[in-house]
């Protein structure tokens, strides 16, 4: 079977580590943390008073009137999408809009807009509620805005699978191109919910780190002292392109998106399957889809969020699905957990690891858990040849997504 | 309040809500055709004007307010 090859020709991101891909990648390789104390007054009452906030606020980058109409998750998706679009050299390429698609999701969506407008409703009544409320809070808002600004007419999709959203959106983009519905797809995720309600909700689940006095040391995947994730905000967008289309226009290619595996646990709404059965199947499907051997996957950007149970379940799954040879990292140790954008940011890190031959570090891995039986690039970056790599993302609801990227 | 003062107040609102250059705001200008104010922004303009000038502008009146001058006359009559 002569299957359509899909490559990555553009990257864009705004994250707690930097306002673009280059600065984010530099910060990762240097092992910097994007987490800090929440100094807002509303944080005082919360059990969790740390987060990984954007390094560059969108307010200075977009027109003031436009910002009135955008939820923060939409604003940063647009910033990342424009970066990726420019990076791919598509601006004046004459791309047919009917061959351009969008697949951009969010884990939680416009919750901050919803809550802010509810405050206005309670304080001043319904007439004061902004007429932009609905397009700001609708979950397809970020994808729709990206499609609108770049003129995409091949279909605009918004996946929602909690913390697997970004990766699943990329997998959907791959499907769109393979199915012949688009030549180019902007794919990724966005999230901006650093607000007391989502924080209180996650904190009530006991899912978040309460290491409030040491924000930069709070996200510590696989370390014995880990006590939950650190909430981050940001957006990451990839330009996926049919390989022949990219070659015809002489585009620079970062890597190949060789395969994807998507499964669902059917086990529990928030707990991962204890033996990681769904994760194992997702990884195995991704490898089979990519037509690579297990041994070819020498690096894994793990989902590892710094929670006591999840981090170890993933180790078990990786050992079963891949073996004991890959070098792992958990970049959430630096970026925090970007929820619906995590899979997109971590795909970008995986792609750049392949390009540059370097695994970014997992910081704060001072006292590894006894169950950590795989090799991790602990605390400093590791240079090595990476012909193929895997990125895992798992989400509440039992969503498992694995992506395989290979050198183009 | 004079008509010029009301026009200046509307110009401030239009700049805040819709990014309209205050120098472009004059009584003869149409909100939609000349100042590019779309229907959602018009809703914001009306609510902000009610607050600023202490008047009520019911929805069935808004459709009659085609130009800045129409709005100035309505506000002048109500206040």
From TrEMBL, chain A:
Record keywords, A-Z: Acyltransferase, Fatty acid biosynthesis, Fatty acid metabolism, Lipid biosynthesis, Lipid metabolism, Transferase
Entry's Gene Ontology molecular function annotations: 3-oxoacyl-[acyl-carrier-protein] synthase activity
SMART domains: PKS_KS
Active site: 163 (for beta-ketoacyl synthase activity)
Keyword Lipid metabolism applies: yes
Pfam families tied to this protein: ketoacyl-synt (PF00109), Ketoacyl-synt_C (PF02801)
Listed InterPro entries: 3-oxoacyl-ACP_synth-2, Beta-ketoacyl_synthase, Ketoacyl_synth_C, Ketoacyl_synth_N, PKS_Beta-ketoAc_synthase_dom, Thiolase-like
One GO term (biological process): fatty acid elongation
The protein's Enzyme Commission number: 2.3.1.179
Top-level taxon: Bacteria
GO cellular component, one term: cytosol
Reactions the enzyme catalyzes: a fatty acyl-[ACP] + malonyl-[ACP] + H(+) = a 3-oxoacyl-[ACP] + holo-[ACP] + CO2; (9Z)-hexadecenoyl-[ACP] + malonyl-[ACP] + H(+) = 3-oxo-(11Z)-octadecenoyl-[ACP] + holo-[ACP] + CO2
UniProt key word Transferase: yes
Domain Ketosynthase family 3 (KS3): 3-407
Pathway: Lipid metabolism; fatty acid biosynthesis
Record function comment: Involved in the type II fatty acid elongation cycle. Catalyzes the elongation of a wide range of acyl-ACP by the addition of two carbons from malonyl-ACP to an acyl acceptor. Can efficiently catalyze the conversion of palmitoleoyl-ACP (cis-hexadec-9-enoyl-ACP) to cis-vaccenoyl-ACP (cis-octadec-11-enoyl-ACP), an essential step in the thermal regulation of fatty acid composition.
Protein family according to the UniProt entry: Belongs to the thiolase-like superfamily. Beta-ketoacyl-ACP synthases family.
Annotated protein name in UniProt: 3-oxoacyl-[acyl-carrier-protein] synthase 2
Organism: Micromonospora deserti
Taxonomic lineage of the native organism: Bacteria, Bacillati, Actinomycetota, Actinomycetes, Micromonosporales
Gene label: fabF
Automatic annotation (TrEMBL), chain B:
Modified residue annotations for O-(pantetheine 4'-phosphoryl)serine: 39
Main location: cytoplasm
PROSITE patterns: CARRIER (PS50075)
Listed GO MF terms: acyl binding; acyl carrier activity
Involved pathway(s): Lipid metabolism; fatty acid biosynthesis
Source superkingdom: Bacteria
Similarity field: Belongs to the acyl carrier protein (ACP) family.
Record's protein name: Acyl carrier protein
Provenance organism: Micromonospora deserti
Lineage, uppermost ranks: Bacteria, Bacillati, Actinomycetota, Actinomycetes, Micromonosporales
Gene: acpP
């Amino acid at each position: 079977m002569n299957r359509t090859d899909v490559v990555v020709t553009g990257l864009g991101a705004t994250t707690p580590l930097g306002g673009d891909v280059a600065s984010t990648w530099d910060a990762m390789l240097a092992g910097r943390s994007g987490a800090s104390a929440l100094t807002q007054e509303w944080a005082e009452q919360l059990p969790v008073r740390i987060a990984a906030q954007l390094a560059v606020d969108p307010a200075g980058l977009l027109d003031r009137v436009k910002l009135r109409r955008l939820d923060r998750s939409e604003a940063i998706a647009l910033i990342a999408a424009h970066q990726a679009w420019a990076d791919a050299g598509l601006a004046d390429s004459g791309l047919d809009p009917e061959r351009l698609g969008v697949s951009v999701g969010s884990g939680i969506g416009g919750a901050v807009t919803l809550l802010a407008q509810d405050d206005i409703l309670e304080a001043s009544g319904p007439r004061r509620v902004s007429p932009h409320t609905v397009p700001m809070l609708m979950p397809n808002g970020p994808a729709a805005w990206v499609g609108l600004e770049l003129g995409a007419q091949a279909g605009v999709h918004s996946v929602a699978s909690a913390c697997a959203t970004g990766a699943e959106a990329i997998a959907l983009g791959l499907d769109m191109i393979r199915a012949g519905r688009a030549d180019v797809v902007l794919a990724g995720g966005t999230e901006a919910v650093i607000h007391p309600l989502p924080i209180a909700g996650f904190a009530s689940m006991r899912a978040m780190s309460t290491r409030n006095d040491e924000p930069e040391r709070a996200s510590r995947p696989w370390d014995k002292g880990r006590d939950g994730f650190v909430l981050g905000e940001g957006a990451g967008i990839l330009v996926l392109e049919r390989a022949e289309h990219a070659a015809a226009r002489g585009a620079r290619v970062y890597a190949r998106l060789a395969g994807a595996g998507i499964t669902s646990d059917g086990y529990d709404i928030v707990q991962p399957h204890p033996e990681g059965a769904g994760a194992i199947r997702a990884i195995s499907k991704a490898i089979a889809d990519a037509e690579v051997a297990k041994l070819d996957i020498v690096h894994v950007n793990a989902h590892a969020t710094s929670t006591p149970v999840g981090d170890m379940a993933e180790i078990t799954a990786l050992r079963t699905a891949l073996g004991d040879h890959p070098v792992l990292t958990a970049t959430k140790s630096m970026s925090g957990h970007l929820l619906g954008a995590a899979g997109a940011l971590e795909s970008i890190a995986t792609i750049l690891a392949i390009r540059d031959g370097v695994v970014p570090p997992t910081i704060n891995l001072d006292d590894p858990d006894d169950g950590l039986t795989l090799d991790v690039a602990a605390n400093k970056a590791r240079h090595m040849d990476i012909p193929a790599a895997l990125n895992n993302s798992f989400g509440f609801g039992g969503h498992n997504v694995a992506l395989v990227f290979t050198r183009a | 309040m004079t008509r010029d003062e009301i026009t200046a107040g509307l110009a401030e609102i239009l700049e805040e809500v819709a990014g309209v250059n205050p120098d472009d705001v004059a009584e003869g200008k149409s909100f939609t055709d000349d100042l590019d104010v779309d229907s959602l922004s018009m809703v914001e303009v009306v609510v902000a004007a009610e607050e600023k000038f202490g008047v009520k502008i019911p929805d069935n009146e808004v459709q009659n307010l085609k130009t800045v001058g129409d709005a100035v006359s309505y506000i002048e009559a109500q206040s």
